[in-house]
Please model this.
Amino acid sequence: MATTADFKNGMCLDIDGNYFFIVEFLHVKPGKGPAFVRTKLKNVRTGRVLDKTWNSGVKVEEVRIERRPYQYLYKDEMGYNFMHTETFEQVALPGESIDGVQFLKEGDICEAMVQAATEEILTCEMPTSVVLEVTYTEPGLKGDTATNTLKPATVETGAEVRVPLFINTGDKVKIDTRDGSYVERVK
Model:
């Protein structure tokens, strides 16, 4: 058990059977009345952020979360199959628990958040950017680098992203997995 005095960013709490990360917190001591703690909490499973106010000194249930590297192997009817890179243990995860799943390709290393007590995998996070090859896009025109105009392109994982006009089929591009935006062309 932890108290509100132990709060720090990134700490994981068990609130009514759901796990929440503390995004930010603020101890408030008003001139009149008792002290309290204002927090922003992010739900581990859904990613929704909520505001919660705690009275100072309230006890909360802390959950120990570990980050472990997992390598993506393949997809089948059970879900997305991953292998722990140190123990070689294999596990299947549903697509909803993987952030940026549309940019996942075989061999990618992801970080899984595992609850240490039950060994349950909560979510899986992709790297912030990945390099993918463009499999289809309309032909680009030479010299179309001055404007910020974007066109649709399909990458090797089947996801569609918006890229600048000078990108052609076969080019490798760096994609931000958090929002699916184009970052740069890779040689």
About this structure: The two ends are 52 Å apart (CA to CA). The first strand starts at residue 2 and ends at 3. The chain has three domains: 2-63, 65-125, 130-186.
